[in-house]
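Query protein
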Amino acid sequence: MAFFDQYSAAWLLGLAAALLATGLVAGVLAGLLGVGGGIVIVPVLYHLFTLLGVDESVRMHVAVGTSLATIVPTSILSSRAHRRKGSLDPALIRQLLPWVVLGVGLGAVASGLLKGSALTAVFAGVALLVALNMAFKRDGVALRDGLPGTLGTAFIGGGIGGLSTLMGIGGGTLSVPILNALRVPMHRAVGTGALLGTVISVPGALAFVINGLGVPLRPPFSLGYVNGLGFALIVPATLLTTGWGATLAHRIDARRLRQVFALFLALTSLRMFAGLLT
C-alpha cells in the first residue's frame, strides 16, 4: 500500500516486532499484576501510530478500538478459566451487569462523538489515577463491605463500563481495585473483572468498527477503528504469555514491578497531556 511505501523493509519489520512485543508484555503483565492488557496496548499503539504519522484525529480512536478487539478472545478464555475455578460471583455479576452494559452503550455513543484529543484526555486522566492507585494503595484498605445501594451500584457499574469502553481496556483494570476496596475477595474480584472484560470488549469493539467505517486518514488494514495488523500480531502473543505472568507472580516481587509499571503509566499519561497542550 502507498501508506507503507515511505518506510523501508527494516522499519516495517521493526514495527511488526514492536507489535509482537506489545502483546508479549501485555500478556505477562496481565497474568503477573492482574491488570488488563489494554492499559499497556493503548499507549503503545498510540505512540506507534504517532511514529507512523497516522493523523491525530483518528490516532487514539484506532488505538482504543484495536485494543478492545484484542481483549475479546483473551477475556473469553480468562472468564472461562475463572468459571472452572469457581471464582465468579453470580450475585455480584447480577448486580453489576445491567449497569455495566448501560455504561458500555453510553461509552460507545460517546466514542463516536468525541474528538481524538478528548479521547486521549480521557485515557490519560484515568490512566494517571490507575497509576497512583497501583503505586500507593495499601493492602487491607477498604471503603465499605460489599456494593452500595442501587444508585451507588449504578454509578460504579456504569462508570466501569463507560470508561473502560472509552479507554480500550478490559473490565479488570477498573473493577478489580474498586471491588477489592469493597472487601470483595481478590479471586472473586479478578474473576468478575474477567467476565466484565468480555461484556465490555465485544460490543465496545463492534461500536468502534461501526463508528470508524468510511472515516478518512485511518491506517491501512483497518476495519472501522480496529486495525487488523495490530490485532493479528498482538492477540497470539498475548495468549501465549498470560500464563507466564501468572507463573512469575509466585517467583518475583510483584509489588516492586507494580510500582515500576505505575511509573511507566504515569509518565505515559503525562506525556499524552503534554502532547495535548502543544
Q: What stands out?
A: The beta strands are 222-223, 226-227. The first strand starts at residue 222 and ends at 223. The chain has a mean pLDDT of 84.
